[in-house]
Amino acid sequence: MATSFFYIQKGLTALLLLTVIVIGLDTKGGDTVHADASAPEQSPVASKSDNLGKSEAAARTKPKKVEVVATGYTAGVESTGKRPGHPQYGITYSGVKVRRDQVSTIAADTRLFPIGTLLYIPGYGYGVVADTGSAIKGKRIDLYFETIKQVYEQWGKRTVHVEVLRMGTGKLSQAWLNKINLAIEAGKPIPQTYLES
Fold first, then answer.
1. Which residue of 45, 59, 134, 170 sits 20 to 30 Å from the alpha carbon of 75, by its own alpha carbon?
2. Backbone angles phi, psi at 114, to 5 degrees
3. DSSP secondary-structure letter at 53?
4. What angle do CA 133, 92, 158 make, to 5 degrees?
5. 160-187 tens-digit pLDDT
6. Are the C-beta atoms of 165 and 190 separated by less than 8 Å?
7. What are the distances in angstroms from CA 8 to CA 17, 145, 160?
8. End-to-end CA distance of the chain
9. What is the DSSP code (8-state) at residue 172?
10. Residue 184 · residue 103 · CB < 8 Å
11. Are 35 and 19 in contact, with CB atoms under 8 Å apart?
12. Within a 13 Å sphere around the CA of 150, how many CA atoms are in the beta-carbon half?
């Protein structure tokens, strides 16, 4: 009966199931059951990627990279046309407040990077697409800085290969942005739960 599992179209899933059964029998102190010697060894602890096809597992472990031209912007009149005191000053297209933090707000073309898309930008850090811009079309992104001086001294205009960590759904909440910034310690990776939410 065990060999009939190998004839299932998704043999890898069946092999994993058989391996789990074998390991389960072996650890209970009963008779040892041996799988086919030509079968590859499986880890006794299954990870989420074990149930995925090889290409899907590779896609999860290696983020997609996209070459973009990155510039900087501020909440000020020079970037947004709004001055302090304006009711929409510092508020992004998604409705969240602009911020430079562990995960900063950035602007992008939402046809390429929907609102909520999480990127890693070399030399800048993590950014979440929260805003749009009239000049931000195609493979261009705008990174938030607090002052014009910071834009010019710390960034300017660069061509970079960003890593797409999570594609957005078109929505972003202030609560999510606050939580992810609290969850990340300086210089640490983003917790997996935020890449899947």
1. 170
2. -60, 160
3. -
4. 45
5. 999 999 999 999 999 999 999 988 876 6
6. yes
7. 12, 55, 45
8. 40
9. -
10. yes
11. yes
12. 12
Tokens at residue 118, please? 């999480």
CB 165 within 8 A of CB 191: no
Determine contact, residues 166/157, Cβ cutoff 8 Å: no
| pTM of the predicted structure, to 2 decimals | 0.67
CA distance 177 to 45: 33
Cβ-count burial 11-22 (b if 16+ within 10 Å, e if not): eeebbbebbeeb
E strand map for the chain? 64-73, 103-108, 118-121, 125-131, 140-144, 158-166
Find the helix or strand (DSSP H, E) in which 58 lies: helix 54-61
CA 169, CA 112: separation in Å to the nearest integer? 12
Residue 119 to residues 19, 46, 139: CA-CA distances in angstroms?
Answer: 37, 28, 13
* C-beta neighbour count of 92 within 10 angstroms: 25
Q: Residue 148 carries which side chain, given as an amino acid letter?
A: I
Write the pLDDT tens digit of every residue in 73-92: 999 999 999 999 999 999 99
Distance CA 126, CA 106 (A): 9
Q: How far is CA 153 from the centre of its chain?
A: 28
* Alpha-carbon distances, residue 184 vs 63, 94, 98, 100, 116 (angstroms): 19, 22, 18, 14, 17
Task: Supply the Cα-derived Rg of the chain in whole angstroms.
Answer: 23
